[in-house]
Predict the structure.
Amino acid sequence: MSGVTVIAVIASAIRLATPLLLSALGGVFSERSGVVNIGLEGIMIFGAFFSVLFTHITGNAWIGVVAAIIFGIVMAALLAVVSINLKGNQIIAGTAVNLLAAALTAFFLELIWHRSGSTPICPDMLTSNPIRVLEKLPVIGDLFKQFTPFIYIAIVLTFVTYYILWKTPWGLHVRAVGEHPKAADTVGIGVYKTRWICVLLSGVLAGLSGACLSIGTVGLFREGMVAGKGFIALAAMVFGKWHPIGAMGASFFFGICLAIQIQAQSFGLDVPGEFLAMVPYVATIIVLIGVVGKAVAPKADGQPYEKDEA
Amino acid sequence: MKGRWKKDLPKVLEMKNITKVFPGVVANDKVNFDLEKGEIHVLLGENGAGKTTLMNILYGLYQATSGEIYFHGEKVDIKGPNDAINLGIGMVHQHFMLVENFTVTENIVLGSEPSKANGLYLDMETARNTVKEVSDNFGLKVDPNALIQDISVGLSQRVEILKTLHKGAEVLILDEPTAVLTPQEIDELGVILKNLTQEGKSIILITHKLKEVLSMSDRVTVIRRGKIVDTLKTKDTNIDQLAEMMVGRSVKLTSDKEDKTPGDVILFIENLVVKDTRKYDAVKSISFDVKAGEIFAVAGVDGNGQKELVEALTGLTKTVSGKVSLCGKDITGNKPKKVLEAGVGHIPEDRHKRGLILQNTLAENLILGYHYCPPFARKGVMNYAKINEHARTLISEYDVRTPNEYVTAGSLSGGNQQKAIIAREFYKDPVLLIASQPTRGLDVGAIEFVHNRLIEQRDNNKAVLLVSLELDEVMNLADRIAVIYQGEIMGIVEGKDATERQLGLMMAGASMEEAIEGGKADNENKIA
């Protein structure tokens, strides 16, 4: 493998890891506060669609990003109502979010563009490197040519997430709520409020992740384009032990798996494409059963909190 | 102050005419309660009497249906824990409110963390220093950097107390603080609380244990079925009077049993090793035997292998090595069904999870374990006429208070659920009865019933293996007592020779010889 190919694979891995990382960070917020969010997939679909729609309307991809965040929050709010206030089953609520997002976007696609499958290409995209100086670096300069604004955003947000959860009083509250909500409640921390904020933050991040997939990569929305990446992000979060830095490493690992699948032809490997397409998903399963056997989820993860006031 | 009369001692707190109605239940009925500065005031009552409800109202976790709370003479409205904390009321809950994987410091400062940069930076350095300061001030030593999951129950409780002190509590509510402690830790807690009152703190102690009332408190308020019976000075009362006030009738706190020479060995255990769910050795090479006509007790603090021992004996868990035999027959590793058929009766530690099927009717629950045997089932078909008839007999014989045999087991009170389990297990006439914490969560009356039945079983020349966390119960009932600590038997003592001090030391890991020495030294001190 030549140096150029290595750079190409790494660049490709980072690009592919970025949406996973953004969603995984959303998962970290949500699950650290005790809400299992398998609706990441659906929120990503929403983010991907609405960022394209608003980029078409305004001609500005950044407004598309804002739209992705707002609609991500809307979807997350749905999950929050069901799983926090109504104390519904969080897995079912998340599944509902996923099904709803897939169906609604297909419907809007028909309604707005009178076509199915995919939207036209956007007039504006966020696929080029905003920090040109970095491209002048020796050896790794080529790497940065491939960078999109989302990659910088994701890296910054990883550390911001770490700082919030581990270095601020509010972060301590979040982790207390996810481990022992009653203990938090008895010292005057609002369990529902904290969980709401965290679930909405997961909406922000997964919405952003959706935008990264559409206007940050191909410049259009296609049905089925998320293709389980929300679930891989969830796996990355578990693999990363519910920790932002861990999620970053795990996302990069899955990014490499996806990159291998895409770059395989250039290696000249004689393997049927169907098998290569399985690589990231098989890796997910192997990682989840093998490597993270001992990862411990927040104790109250997935459990609705009931104040025992009758 | 609105023309209210003044008394000699300053009242820190008064709760007046507090009523709390839950759907279908009046948990507190016009309750009056007050607290003087620097006193330890016990709130005594049975499970479900309304003690904890009253205190949860004071701490803002519940809202009273009606009634008023005065704090230093001022009427206050406590809407949530935050209001209580701001007034200076702190609560140590029965089930610790500690985050297991947080440090001592993080737990203590949670909810009132020191911060910098407008709350954007959690100042752990200052937090650690304040924790050190508070712990030095009150003489409560803790390691600020230890994780809660690594420290003992006694220390965890200390962290809980520090947590309230750190938040500036001058009134401390402790809910059943001794339930999880060894006798020595209880003594230590007594000293800690005395010291706190000398620092000007006022303390409310919720308990249903009579001995603690006498040793720890200045005043005691007895509550029964949501109503206050009376408030007394501790020094003017005694254990029998308190028991009667608490239960509403006179009760005998100790059971009489005649001396009896035990018969043949019924249960024989040799070098038994059992792993817990995390695959650690929970029972480490235990050997003992239980004879016909004796109550053999296993005493110890919760989580020292009792659960695994019982589960291995009843076939619910696999044994790793060792031998268990019943009446000379090897039953090691047998399935629960075979163990039960061999003549073992089992009163499980958790009557909700293991003792009963709560959604099923009482009648169905009363045949569990022999539901497949005639006359209750023939050729795989249940005979409900027989089942219900059987239920009616047991209900009257064991005085299970229930409207009829068709109600769900879950709708019965704890005491009646336990009576139902006992009725079912005794009906089999087992050669060995394994009773695991048979009086957990029961009120005094029900405890009396269970104790008498266990003694009756012994007097009928049956073997009884009693596993209990309650030292009083063990000393009251057992002919022989084995103390279990970290999966090992520290020693086996004759019931009539056992002292609380000696058992307590063994429960904390002392060998039998050390414990006897310790017990002696203690007695000498008392004489001196």
User: Anything to note?
Assistant: Chain A touches chain B at residues 167-173, 175-176, 179-180, 182-189, 299, 307-310 (CB under 8 Å).
